[in-house]
């Protein structure tokens, strides 16, 4: 679903910014508007916001020290364009990744949890284990590996589905063309594509004659799948 920046909440919008301040993220993690003034914080949120801020400062100073000791000036300039403070801008992916240990199911807004995990995986892919360990030790590394593997598995599955659709589409075209050599015009439509209805009847009759279950061969389902397969032939 497309995100509407104008209609999203302040916390929703925060997840789309290229740079975030620690004080903004600390409030969002506590499910408070990130732009709330300190004096306007709800009384029951003051302590947790303060604790979040303190944690994020310490973790990002740790990451900064790690990068500096490894002479990663390019990363330092990107992640920390100004000295680390609660009101200093920090590159979004690194600050979201750095709060992975602060995620609490009954407090953290879901969109923030998802953004933190996304950022952690992205940093893991680009910079490796050593940087992720600075974000949250073994827990952060475990989360990054687990979710990175899931993403790769999902990508592979999507590639396999795309391949399968193309194979089905090519088989449908070749079957229709072979059938049309008899002179029948019902197999190829005016647009030059296989006619779906006679193909459905042919396969349906074959399944019935050979004792093959016709589950999943309903007309509507067959039409949708074959249309998708034929369309996929022109995908990159």
Layout of helices and strands:
Layout: H1 10-14, E1 19-21, H2 22-29, H3 46-69, H4 73-79, E2 89-91, H5 92-98, H6 110-127, H7 129-180, H8 196-209, H9 219-232
Antiparallel strand pairs: 1-2
What's this entry about, in short?
This protein is mostly helical and 236 residues long.
Task: Report on the architecture of this protein.
The chain has helices spanning about 10-15, 20-30, 45-70, 75-80, 90-100, 110-125, 130-180, 195-210, 220-230, and strands spanning about 20, 90. It has about 240 residues and is an all-alpha fold. Strands 1-2 form a two-stranded antiparallel ribbon. The two termini are about 25 Å apart.
Overall morphology:
elongated
Number of H- or I-type helical stretches: 9
What is the rounded Rg?
27 Å
Report the mean per-residue pLDDT as an integer. Answer: 85
- State the secondary-structure class: mainly alpha
Number of strand elements: 2
| Through-space gap between termini | 23 Å
Largest sheet: 2 strands, antiparallel
With strands numbered from the N-terminus, the spatial order across the biggest sheet is 1-2
- Outline the low-pLDDT stretches: none
Instruction: State the helical fraction.
Output: 55-70%
One letter per element, helices H and strands E, the order comes to: HEHHHEHHHHH
Strand content: under 5%
């Amino acid at each position: 679903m497309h995100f509407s920046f104008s209609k999203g909440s302040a916390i929703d919008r925060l997840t789309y910014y290229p740079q975030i301040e620690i004080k903004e993220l600390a409030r969002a993690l506590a499910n408070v508007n990130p732009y709330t003034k300190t004096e306007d914080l709800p009384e029951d949120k003051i302590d947790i916001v303060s604790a979040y801020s303190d944690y994020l400062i310490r973790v990002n100073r740790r990451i900064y020290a790690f990068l500096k000791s490894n002479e990663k000036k390019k990363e330092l300039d990107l992640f920390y364009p100004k000295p680390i403070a609660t009101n200093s801008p920090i590159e979004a992916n690194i600050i979201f990744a750095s709060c992975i240990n602060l995620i609490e199911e009954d407090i953290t807004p879901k969109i923030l949890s998802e953004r933190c995990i996304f950022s952690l995986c992205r940093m893991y892919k680009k910079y490796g284990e050593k940087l992720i360990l600075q974000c949250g030790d073994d827990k952060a590394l475990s989360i990054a590996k687990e979710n990175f593997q899931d993403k790769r598995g999902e990508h592979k599955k999507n590639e396999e589905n795309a391949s399968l659709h193309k194979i089905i589409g090519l088989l449908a075209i070749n079957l229709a063309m072979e059938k049309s050599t008899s002179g029948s015009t019902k197999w190829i439509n005016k647009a030059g594509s296989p006619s779906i209805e006679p193909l459905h009847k042919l396969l349906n009759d074959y399944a019935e004659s050979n004792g093959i279950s016709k589950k999943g061969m309903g007309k509507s389902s067959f039409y949708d799948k074959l249309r998708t397969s034929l369309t996929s032939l022109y995908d990159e």
